[in-house]
Design a protein that fits this description.
By secondary structure, the protein is an alpha/beta fold. Helix content is about 30%, strand content about 10%. The chain is built from eight helices and eight strands. The strands form two sheets. Strands 3-2-1-4-6 form a five-stranded mixed sheet. Strands 5-8-7 form a three-stranded mixed sheet. Helix 2 (about 145-150) crosses helix 3 (about 155-165), helix 3 packs parallel to helix 5 (about 215-225) and helix 7 packs parallel to helix 8 (about 310-325).
Length: about 325
């Protein structure tokens, strides 16, 4: 029975990954607008609320949002972060505090502005038949790739070191990337995850040269914790978690049993186009436009490489794809 899922919350995070003051480019917020259109068009069962987390309170680039629509709300990340982190330069730190969003549902979907649905999408895309979150992981990295990871992707390497520290070698068997897809989460597992990783997060935040990926910490906490037969009353293991007190979950929660699902890479790739790249190469852009418009898959994530160097033709190509897919305005505009 999937009726309950119609009220699930959807959360967008805008953390200024690109310079949104760049003129003559397809802005992050423009992509967000089309992403929301794709939700309304291809997730017709969704009747819940959309939250947009922004870096500051100005919202000058979100003038297209219909503020009178009670199903969409803009929240500055300062409203979520504790006071000691208000001035942080860690652009993705707010992801550790998504549960602080007022009115957030117990299960919610975290999605990015460059995520787009292109066919009808059932809730099973996000959740298993038992309503467990699906975490879309790539295959484990090869040994040679792991050796260079500490230089190529320092935040990921640091994040997995934290995971290994707390959950032990028996849990941590490989380095794996998450696909760039929407992430379903349990609201009430964020607080115990923060309590567990608190010292390491604090150390990273106060070190200008350090960075980490909150999404990996939260998803791995979900995977490890809910694999324990007596969670949350007792959490065993060979890492530092065994020396920690048992997690205390929200007393008002309605979910009794937590779990997770990790689909096979084969299953994931059957329904998703990954890293659809737009660049200065107009010929490749045209091929990608045709590929998406003729696709039977249900989702793609967009990569705009060096968007500040796009020619007028490149920009028009990108807008043409978006307008072809999502011509009609959403009720959130």
């Amino acid at each position: 029975d999937w009726q309950w899922v119609s009220n699930i919350s959807i959360v967008y995070g805008l953390n200024n990954e690109i310079d949104i003051n760049q003129k003559n480019t397809m802005l992050m917020t423009e992509q967000l607008k089309f992403s929301i259109r794709s939700i309304e068009k291809y997730l017709p069962w969704f009747k819940g609320k959309i939250f947009i987390i922004t870096k500051d309170k100005s919202n000058n680039d979100l003038t297209w949002v219909d503020k009178s629509n009670k199903r969409i709300q803009i929240i500055p990340q300062s409203q979520l972060l504790p006071s000691k982190y208000k001035n942080t330069t860690k652009k993705n730190l707010f992801e550790m505090y998504l549960d602080k969003i007022p009115g957030l549902t117990e299960r919610f979907i975290y999605i990015k502005y460059n995520h787009f649905f292109i066919k009808y999408t059932h809730p099973r895309f996000f959740l298993s038949n038992t309503f467990y979150p699906k975490y879309n992981y790539y295959s484990p990295l090869e040994k040679d790739d792991v050796k260079s990871l500490s230089e190529i992707n320092k935040p990921l390497y640091a994040t997995y070191n934290i995971i290994k520290k707390y959950f032990g070698e028996s849990y941590f068997r490989s380095y794996r990337y998450l696909f760039d897809t929407p992430y379903p989460f349990y609201r009430d597992l964020f607080e115990p995850a923060r309590q567990l990783f608190n010292e390491d997060i604090d150390e990273i935040v106060h070190n200008k040269k350090s960075a980490f990926y909150p999404i990996y910490l939260i998803s791995n906490y979900n995977i490890y914790g809910t694999s324990q037969p007596y969670y949350p009353e007792y959490v065993s293991g060979y890492g530092e978690i065994r020396n920690k007190t048992a997690p205390i979950l929200n007393k008002d929660r309605t979910i009794d049993y937590y779990g997770y699902d990790i689909p096979s890479v084969y299953t994931i790739e059957k329904v998703i186009h990954f890293n659809v790249a737009f660049s200065q190469n107009s010929e490749k852009n045209e091929k990608n436009i045709k590929r998406i418009l003729n696709s039977q898959k249900i989702f793609f994530n967009l990569r705009t490489n060096n968007i500040q160097k796009f020619t007028s033709k490149n920009k028009k190509q990108l807008y043409r794809l978006m307008e072809s897919l999502y011509q009609d305005k959403s009720s959130f505009e």
